[in-house]
Design goal:
Number of helices: 21
Radius of gyration: 22 Å
Structural class: mainly alpha
Number of strands: 4
Strand order of the largest sheet: 1-2
Distance between the termini: 27 Å
């Protein structure tokens, strides 16, 4: 039955669809085909999440080869949630494409654009469902290389520089990850995630001294390589240098997709490696990982938010905001508690919604205005009211105003800090929102309270509101952020279940 193969179809469908875009070539056919694929993948993700929530973990052995010899795909409450986010964002962003891709990507490259987009989606979905750490690396490379191609298609020549920087930094991160995987395989002889966890805790004799495998210097080095490599992919401060230019100069649709998914999947990989492969005891008691993750997260939040305040390109402003928001997710992880992990996983979901919607709003502005420079957006609140209203909703989410999804994330983050008596961290987390108020207000002030500059001796150019095909996806995502800011049972419930599983106190 097809239902038995839904897990692998999640990856096979977009993987086979990518080369078909090259065969179809016709712009309209390729667009419609890509949208259809996106919604099929989203439907599969909904069915899989429903199955996981109702019946527990879903396993799939490729070729019916038994674990650990065969390759296993596994879905639990954590990666089923991430799968829903990635596929849902893709499904909503793809209908946004016709106008913005036509405007920002050369006509003879559009079929290649959609092929690369579906390959990137394949990689992100593959990372999420695989239970083999080397396959996780392979899918990570598929998503990274296709993302590099997508970034390079931006209208500015600086898009090529941004893509090259992304490639260089991504290669460094990938090299670290691959070295870590190699060292792990050398010590355990396996690549299956569950089997790795089991073998790392076995007793061996080294120089006539009994010790556990995870106490060896090789495994400790592997842990360091993997953590740093994944942190580069995650853009954790100060390893974030690739992100601002990539988000600024990529096509608008690409920026919205990558900002909502790529760093979220990387954070999922970090969670999976730390909690499922190495375990809480090794990572946080033996290696004291939280002692440097917490200060890095806090410093990243404040520095990135401060830099965002001084940006005049709004896409670049939002890019630095993303670095700060990654800090919130890592800060929740560093508490090493169910509430802390719940805040991280909820924020992973909420930030995907708010930042995806904000970058889609920037795509609407780029289409009509031809610029996202702050000085060019004077009076835009009256000229493009629906688009700017969407930006305001996204900005309120970033600040964490009550009744928005962003508030829920920060509420659980502060609760986690107070649970452990970390009052200073709770206060710092709370006051960091004031920086978000400043950079969001800069855009609001220009758009709503400043008059547009009229050209000398000429009439002010009339701007039409963005097309419905672009406004609808924008408001769908940002509308969801308002809905989940009030009805929190679904995201918080799934996130808490995933957090309990990672901490080993639930199923």
């Amino acid at each position: 039955m097809i239902a038995d193969h839904l897990l692998i179809l999640q990856v096979i469908v977009p993987l086979l669809a990518a080369p078909l875009c090259v065969v179809l070539r016709h712009r309209m056919l390729v667009r419609l085909f890509a949208v259809l694929v996106g919604w099929v993948v989203f439907a599969i993700a909904i069915m899989l999440l429903t199955r996981v929530l109702n019946a527990g973990t879903v396993d799939y052995n490729l070729g019916n080869w038994a674990v650990p010899w065969g390759i296993e795909c596994r879905l639990d409450s954590l990666n089923a949630f991430v799968l829903l986010i990635v596929s849902g964002i893709a499904a909503v962003v793809l209908p946004f494409a016709p106008h913005t891709v036509k405007d920002e990507v050369s006509g003879d490259k559009q079929y290649l654009f959609f092929a690369a987009f579906l390959l990137c989606l394949t990689g992100l979905l593959g990372i999420t469902i695989t239970w083999d750490i080397f396959n996780m690396f392979v899918f990570l490379e598929i998503s990274s290389l296709s993302a590099c191609a997508l970034i390079s298609m931006g209208r500015s020549r600086r898009a090529l520089t941004a893509a090259y920087q992304y490639l260089v930094m991504g290669t460094i991160g990938s090299t670290f990850i691959l070295i870590g995987i190699g060292l792990m395989y050398m010590m355990t002889g396996t690549l299956n995630i569950s089997d790795l966890n089991d073998r790392l805790q076995r007793l061996i004799i080294v120089n006539q001294v009994p010790m556990f495998v995870n106490q060896t210097r090789t495994v400790i080095a592997a842990f360091a390589f993997l953590t740093v490599g994944i942190s580069i992919k995650l853009a954790l401060f100060p390893l974030h240098a690739w992100l601002p230019n990539a988000y600024t100069f990529a096509p608008s649709m690409v920026t919205a997709f990558l900002a909502s998914t790529a760093t979220k999947v990387s954070f999922y990989v970090l969670l999976r490696v730390i909690f499922t492969v190495f375990g809480v005891t090794f990572a946080f008691q033996s290696m004291q990982l939280n002692t440097w993750l917490m200060p890095l997260a806090l410093v990243g939040i404040y520095i990135a938010s401060t830099v965002a305040i001084y940006q005049n390109n709004v896409k670049r402003l939002l890019a630095y905001s993303s670095v700060a928001q990654i800090g919130y997710m890592v800060l929740g992880l560093s508490f090493v508690s169910v509430t802390g992990l719940t805040s991280s996983i909820v924020h992973l979901f909420n930030h995907a919604l708010m930042k995806g919607g904000l970058f889609l709003a920037m795509g609407c502005i780029m289409l009509r205005l031809g610029s996202v420079q702050l000085q060019d957006m004077k009076g835009l609140g009256r000229r493009m009211p629906l688009t700017m209203a969407a930006f305001v909703v996204g900005g309120l989410n970033l600040i964490g105003v009550p009744m928005t999804a962003g508030f829920i994330s920060k509420w659980y983050l502060i609760l986690a800090a107070l649970e452990q008596g970390l009052w200073l961290v709770a206060v710092l987390s709370l006051f960091s929102s004031l920086l978000a108020v400043v950079y969001v207000w800069r855009v609001v002030e220009v758009a709503y309270f400043q008059e547009p500059e009229r050209p000398a001796g000429g009439e002010l150019r009339r701007l039409n509101e963005a097309p419905v095909s672009m406004l609808l996806p924008t408001w769908m995502i940002l509308g969801a952020s308002l809905v989940f800011g009030v009805y929190t049972e679904f995201p918080v419930g799934v996130a808490r279940r995933a957090a309990e599983m990672l901490m080993g106190v639930g199923s």
